[in-house]
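so my prof wants the structure for this chain in the tokens format not the other one, which i didnt know existed until like an hour ago. anyway here's the sequence
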Amino acid sequence: MNAQFIGLGVGPGDPELITLKAHRLMQNADVVSYLANQQGSSQARDIAQHSLADSKKGQIEIPVPMPMKNDRTAANQAYDLAADKIRAVIAEGKKVVFLCEGDPLFFGSFSYLLDRLQDEMTCAVVPGISSVHAASSALKLPLSMLKESVAIINGRHSEEKIRQTLQQHDSIIIMKAGPYRPKILQALKDTGRSDEANYLEYIGRDKQVIIDDVSLLGDDKGPYFSLFVVLKKERQG
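here's what i got, hopefully its the right format
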């Protein structure tokens, strides 16, 4: 792959779900970049640590520290700074890979860097297994059958938007649900779909949690890496 900047999906958490292609590109890249918290910890790098253990000699890493709070201005500044660092190393002739949990272009942080850099350099994307598909596998339940409709929304949406989606579609996945769990639970109750909902946290990781009775959940918030999967009890056969 001759691209200078490549987004690599590393999957939802299980390092064995990293594709062979992503593994190879990680090992051979000059530079590896990824999102990190203010302490330098990175979920994407943790997933990929085994692939990076025997990587190219002299490989350097560029963590992209992100603000903990939902501050779009601060996040944009962090992406601007990261894009400048990536430009600089690519100008030196280096190849950069950027690690993303799940898939790079499905609620992926890579999208924001791609938007800033794709007009200046050759970019490419290696898809990864999303948490949606990992959740379906963990539940051993199909997301869609025959004419069933599927909707994927973000927990940031208003409660009214979540209710409308629950009313209009057969299968619904609500991503990044933890911080918004109370309003999602209320929307499920209002639409009579609580008994069709499954709640999952940290899919594919050691601390994975699956709850198939959402009435057991309290009104407190959950972790960012969580989702609801809502499927009709009576499926189209």
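also thought this was worth mentioning. Helices lie at 20-28, 43-52, 72-91, 110-117, 131-139, 159-168, 181-190.
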